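Human: I hope this is not a bother. Would you mind checking the protein record under this note? Thank you for your patience.
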Amino acid sequence: MPLKFIKSQKGKNMSVYNGFLYSKHEVYENKIVWRCSDFKKFACKSRCHTTSEDETGEILKYTDHSHAPNVAKSEAKGLVNEIKKSAENGQFSTR
């Protein structure tokens, strides 16, 4: 299964897996560790380990969350990314 990424509000990659959003936490030689984006809100200790930061990478390991997935949040961020990309391509105005 290919990895899926969306851009955060600050333009950084966020990983999406099983309806949960992850932000990059640590980078090692052969893996990237992603932390649950609701780490502070729910004190969630979930992590996701991937081989790379692109769609060709694989998930090596992940841990369970202490909260339910917020699928609407990840879909909303994905739609915002699509709108920004189409505005950059000149199809629509940025307004």
Observations:
- The helical segments are 39-42, 71-88.
- Strands lie at 4-7, 13-17, 20-27, 32-36, 47-50, 59-62.
- The longest helix spans residues 71-88.
- The chain is about 25% helix and 30% strand.
